[in-house]
Amino acid sequence: MDFIDELTWRGMIHTMMPGTEDQLRKEMTTAYLGIDPTADSLHIGHLCGVMMLRHFQRCGHKPLALVGGATGMIGDPSGKSAERNLLDEATLRHNQEAIKKQLGKFLDFESDAPNRAELVNNYDWTKDITFLDFAREIGKHITVNYMMAKDSVQKRLNGEARDGLSFTEFTYQLLQGFDFLHLYEAKNCKLQLGGSDQWGNITTGAELIRRKNGGEVFALTCPLITKTDGGKFGKTESGNIWLDPKYTSPYKFYQFWLNVSDADAEKYLKIFTSLTREEIEALVEEHAKDPGQRPMQKRLAKEVTEMVHSVKDYEAAVEASKILFSNQAADALRSIDEKTLLDVFEGVPMFEVSKEEIEAGIPVLELLAVKTPIFPSKGEARKMVQGNGVSINKEKFADTNGVIDSAALLGGKYIHVQKGKKNHYLIKAV
Length: 430
Description:
Elements: H1 3-9, E1 15-16, H2 20-26, E2 30-35, H3 47-58, E3 62-67, H4 89-103, E4 118-121, H5 123-126, H6 131-137, H7 144-148, H8 151-160, H9 167-170, H10 172-187, E5 189-195, H11 199-213, E6 218-222, E7 235-236, E8 239-240, H12 250-258, H13 262-272, H14 277-289, H15 295-308, H16 311-323, H17 330-335, H18 338-344, E9 350-353, H19 355-360, E10 362-363, H20 364-371, H21 378-386, E11 390-392, E12 395-396, E13 403-404, E14 414-419, E15 423-429
Parallel strand pairs: 2-3, 2-5, 3-4, 5-6, 9-15
Antiparallel strand pairs: 1-6, 7-8, 10-13, 11-12, 11-14, 14-15
Helix pairs in contact: 10-11, 12-15, 12-16, 13-15, 15-16, 20-21
């Protein structure tokens, strides 16, 4: 596989420094991509860069994932309108370990292959350098004029930031340039990868290497991922879509990909999966014949969920997805965890009832019309129960004299009530 060819057909190249292609075809090359460790999980906004590293390794080259322990303490002004919070070392170390674990699902860190991936932290080579050493050894090689010309600096200076640009942030591009220099000298790293908003910082590093020791290095950036409707990719009403299941459940993660538009699905299949060109073209053709079946979205959701989580998590997410629309989902409803249950029924009305009362047993009509307002009266509840229009935990409940007790509690805490085909409710035992 040829890295540039692979990224080109996948639509993953935004800008590339001249000579990059020749360098990659000449020899196994080491490249790095920086990841900001401001949280202990990556989110899907990081995925394009991570997939670049994955393709890079699959094409026989050596990837370095740089966790910005030092630069994370400062904050990159690129694309930002405000200075970010600074993190302490203990938090950064915790975040680094969590991120490495996630990256292990995409990259080979463990084998003896010459191109096995490595995780590096710029805090390790930055923490002991003094300000005077940095000013003398690094600062003297790059002029203020050069730094001022960068888009990220200009935008902040021209009024996009309420408080301007701090000296701390202004030095960010030098620190990132120092990373490139260190990895070039220590690991023969000749290529830096990143998002298109990083181009200014990356080229500062290349210029620093050229001026300091005459070395030639290269740069390649991927486009910032967008949605066809202009909305921000990876953002939902509840925030980022995280890779860590404790922040975004596998069910919710799966649902995100399942619900992308047709236009985005084709683009995302190329960027976020390792499917071949032929496989994606076949999916596009299948989709065109019957868009209602959404084959592109289904395959996209499968590939990304299995890659980030597991086959088991994917299968559980598919089962959970059926709960809302299937009358044969009683077993699935009882098997899912609390977080997934709440994700499945996000936004449905929830009512609280005393757990003691439920354990003692509550007549079903009283539960539905007195303890909760699911029905306005016992009479209406009775009529719908008799008409087979009420399900408790996805099982039809037709006994108007029936009693609901602790045996109905899902996970010892919830009861799902369905009225008709579309009205769902949760009762929580408190």
